[in-house]
Amino acid sequence: MFVVGRSRFVGVVTFVVMFVLLACEHVEAQTRVIARASDLPHLAGDQAPGTDGSEFRFFSVPTLNSAGDVAFRAMLKEDGGAVDASNRSGLWTTAGGDLRLVVREGDDAPGTDGADYEFLSSFPKPIFSLNVEGDLLFGLNLQRGENGVDLNNNKGIWRASRDTVDLLARTGDEAPGTGGAIFYDFATITRVNETGHLVFSASLRRGQNGVDFRNNSGIWATVGGSFHLIARTGDEAPGTGGAVFSNLPGASVVMNSAGDFVFSGSLEIGGDVDTNNSRGIWGTSGGVLGLITRQGSEAPGTGGAVFESFAWTSFNAKGDLAIRALLDARHDNVDSKSRNGLWVTSNGVLRLVARADSEAPGVDGAKFSSFSMPILNDASDLAFHSTLRWGENGVDPTNDDGIWMSSGGPLRLIAREGSEAPGTDGARFHHFFPSNSGHRFNLNASGDLAFRGLLREGENGVDFTNDEGIWMTSTDSLRLIAREDSDAPGTGGADFMSFSPLAMNASGDLAFMATLQTGENGVNSRNWRGLWAYSSFLEETILIAREGDLFDVSLEQDGSDLRTISTIHFYDPLDAFSGLETVSGLNDAGDIVYVLEFRGGASGIFVTTLIPSPGAISLFSLMGPALARRRRC
Fold it and tell me: What CA–CA distance (Å, rounded) separates 251 from 262?
């Protein structure tokens, strides 16, 4: 009985493994149409919900949340009647089910006694953010000249839930916590997080309610469902012994998914405050504001050296913060070689991660020289780019560049200039783009790191046509994802020519725009750009859409409406990095959202999801979560 049972168990396992292997050989790209538009009078677009039959004309680049909801701005087709320049723009979302209108230019703005929205305005972008609950945050202007709207009260911030749109704040209204002072302008809006919290900075109108140049700006946040003042110039700064804020830069405010946030600020000079200790970083923990670190304070791990300047960078859901800083060179333990460093807060305690002139792991005694902005994920994994000091331990301009990472333990080297680049037949790395550059590398919540790098020309067959690639770490190994002059999947043999910045999700899927080399394999200026995705489950790169290809825009499952793609619009990760607008083109479920323009004037918003074949999905569902994330097929 035991032997038979054991044999049957082995047989089941063998069958399961074989089935998974077979199933993983197939992939399906499921694409759904969100909306279609036409820029030509004679070519119909979809009717825009909430507009009494008006048609979409064209779309902005959409954003996507982790639930697969899409939000986008669009312009309606002017028809000489119901749609004109005063009401042609709007904001739509699929949150809650079907596509629906959230707000339209010219419509009454809730909470304003009849004032109308205006999209074409001087507001710092008609910004919108979409969270996992489908809440949409947006800032818009109001149309001046009617309903009492003028330059003093024509800006507002609203939040749209699935059922209501509520005014959160408006210029000209009383600013909470200020004793009657009035909002004058909104400087920056950050994203609405997963729990619907919001934080923003604003200025107050001078000359009223005791407001002058010393106390006319502040930071507000939603706490417990209502707005509260968090910090204001002229107010006491926590942790400073009575010093007061003099400057609170709006662009510095960053909020995490737990509703806590950090910001940098300056203190008013005078008394115990001078130019050597006037700047600091503050943040909240559980809603309580406190000082994180301050210029002139002791820098942990340096033997008594003090901070001279710093910039906070990544702030994660646990409340940990990564900081790049300079030390004051007047201290005995600091010279020009050792001023740079990286620090991380962990459970509220600041600790040194790496310092210039200290030994860099994995490079035979070479020392760090300078650091780019570090990246910190929600698991508190840390990644950064650094240069090494020339003239010591064999370091010269050919090998002074590298990427390091820490995952809850010691730092480890991921890649170094001059070392062999995986997947390139012996070619060596030449350069890595710093994380604060336009080529920012990506660190996801699972600890996977993806980056673009250059190879050294003049050896191993490397020249300017094949010297760039995309690499990613996975289970502590580094692998090549795509390279210039290598076959671009789905193109019939065309080769990659260049890559745009990457989007990456928690599962290690990537999405990126790329160009193809022209003059061969039928590639020309009308079909040389495309959108590709790397599936971490399948460990392969797949074409999503290519300019010049036919694309079915039909809404019917058994229908066919083929159009030729002229242009592809995919979100720019730098928009999200800038903090000016919260956008995402790839979510953790593997959904990819993009806009296609077609020859002849039509366009559309589409979402593509790469999934294993149905058999593999069903099997993995039965086998449980242990096999759900990773992709060892």
Answer: 11
Strands 245-247 and 261-267: antiparallel
3-state DSSP helix/strand/coil % of the chain, to nearest 5? 5, 40, 50
| Three-state DSSP state, 256 | coil
Looking at residue 372, its amino acid is: S
Q: Tokens 């004793």 correspond to what residue?
A: 179
Residues 566 and 133: their CA atoms lie apart, in Å, by 34
Strand order in the sheet with 340-346: 307-315, 321-327, 340-346, 349-355
What is the rounded CA–CA span in Å between residue 577 and residue 189? Answer: 14
In eight-state DSSP terms, residue 236 is B
Amino acid letter, residue 498: S
Checking 451-454 for CB contacts under 8 A at 24+ apart, the result is 451/403, 451/415, 452/499, 452/501, 452/502, 453/415, 453/421, 453/429, 454/429, 454/430
Query: Is the pLDDT assigned to residue 252 strictly greater than 90?
Result: no
The SS3 assignment for 490 reads: coil
Phi and psi for 488 in degrees, rounded to 5?
-90, 115
Residue 155's DSSP bridge partners are 141
Two tokens, residue 443: 């660190």
User: What DSSP assignment string belongs to 367-382?
Assistant: BEEEE---EE-TT--E
Beta-strand pair 279-285/254-255? unpaired
Residues in the chain, overall count: 633
In this predicted model, what pLDDT tens digit does every residue of 219-249 receive, in sequence order?
A: 998 766 678 899 999 999 999 999 999 999 8
Cα of first residue to Cα of last residue in the chain, in angstroms, is 33
Q: Which two tokens stand for residue 538?
A: 């399948």
Mean pLDDT of 203-228: 88
Helix (H, G, I), strand (E, B) or coil at 287: coil
Q: How far apart are CA 413 and CA 390, in angstroms?
A: 18
- For the beta carbon of residue 629, count every other beta carbon within 10 angstroms: 13
CA atoms within 13 A on the CB side of 539: 13
Q: Any residues with CB less than 8 A from the CB of 177 and at least 6 apart, and which?
A: 218, 220, 228, 229, 232
The CB-side HSE value for 561 (13 A sphere, CA atoms) comes to 12
Beta strands 550-552 and 540-546 are unpaired
Q: Are the beta carbons of 225 and 245 closer than 8 angstroms?
A: no
**Residue 623 φ then ψ, to 5°:** -80, -10
Which DSSP category does 273 fall into? B
Residue 197 near residue 255 (C-beta atoms within 8 A): yes
Find out whether 561 and 43 touch, Cβ atoms under 8 Å. no
Q: CB–CB of 165/198 below 8 Å?
A: no
On whether the CB atoms of residues 228 and 206 are closer than 8 A, the answer is: no
Helix, strand or coil, per DSSP, at residue 7 = helix
Q: Does residue 18 have a pLDDT over 60?
A: no
pTM, two decimals, is: 0.86
> Residues 235, 215: contact at Cβ < 8 Å?
yes
How far apart are the C-alpha atoms of 488 and 485, rounded to whole Å? Answer: 8
In tens, the pLDDT along 496-548 reads 999 988 899 999 999 999 999 999 899 999 999 999 999 988 889 999 999 99
Nearest by Cα to 147 from 166, 120, 170: 170
Asked whether 183 and 195 are in contact (CB, 8 A), the reply is: no
Query: What is the pLDDT averaged over residues 591-600?
Result: 93
